[in-house]
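Hi R.,

Here's the chain you asked about this morning:
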Amino acid sequence: MKYIDEYRDGDSAEKLVNEIRQAVKRDWTIMEICGGQTHTIVKSGIDELLPSRLTLVHGPGCPVCVTPLELIDKAVEIAMRPDVLFTSFGDMLRVPGSEKDLLTVKAAGGNIRIVYSPLDALKLAQQHPDQNIVFFAVGFETTAPANALAVWQAKQLGVKNFSILCSHVLVPPAMEAILSSPMNRVQGFLAAGHVCTVMGFEEYIPLASKYHVPMTVTGFEPVDILQGILMTVRQLQDGQATVQNQYARVVRREGNRSAQELIKKVFMVTDRSWRGIGTIPMSGYRLRDEFGAFDAEKLFDVTAIQTQESPLCIAGQVMQGFKKPHDCQAFGIQCTPEHPLGAPMVSSEGACAAYYHFGKIRH
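And the predicted structure, written out as tokens:
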């Protein structure tokens, strides 16, 4: 396909790999933030083509991976109620909670439906006024505009039986949490292109300066990623720490201002718990008070649910770049896509799933 095939071209990729090999003069560690990038890296064998002095580690991955266990338990609790039609994207159904996942609830008769947009859930609310329609609003900044729009429209239309269980997380605070950790090993970032499509990359500039870490906004095809790596390596070798935009065909510095304004109207920034990582200050969205009637967590009184992660799962260390998936003792044994211990083995963008499906048992 035009505009895609050129970013999968083998000759272009080979040329970039050779340029990276020539550019790397010492040991460097770069983290890609997005799980879509991780899957391209692993599936395409990019990590095996790079020089040994260059290490790629995998970041938070995707919002499914970092949705806290307690929120999965809250979703399960709400979905089990007879007056609720619970809606979600498909990849959330198999994320394990403390005792069960949403797919198990559905198999036991729970009224759970996969939708492709929060607006589909809002339409269901209009079609079924006798039921409470709840949408599991999970996402980075990328999906926040659509979720904000659904809540905004529900209020404007006077729909009383629609609500969202909100689990929005923000990328820049997570990057700062990684950089400020005493265990940090990341020296450069490939920033998530889809997030920056909405939010732009102005928020990254002070981070790059504060921690003297170069960041490159990067797309998701093999050539995109190799270009992003090369741009980051060149900065590292030159001692620079700026934000560059490899994904210029999609991303603008200021992002999508209209989408950002809609987000601000409906959501406000709050502290948010990240699965396997813990609470990161001011790293998520919650509904503004004027939209409290659409907050499923309050409507169904599940705010008090507390849980504890499996001691076998090292997903948090994987998502912070401290370890690789195959460093986990449970990987491929107690933890598989069929019986996952953590979300990175479930999600289509999870690092553990990528390693499992593409046979990366050893780096």
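Residues 276 and 315 are 6 Å apart (CA to CA).

Let me know if you need anything else.
M.
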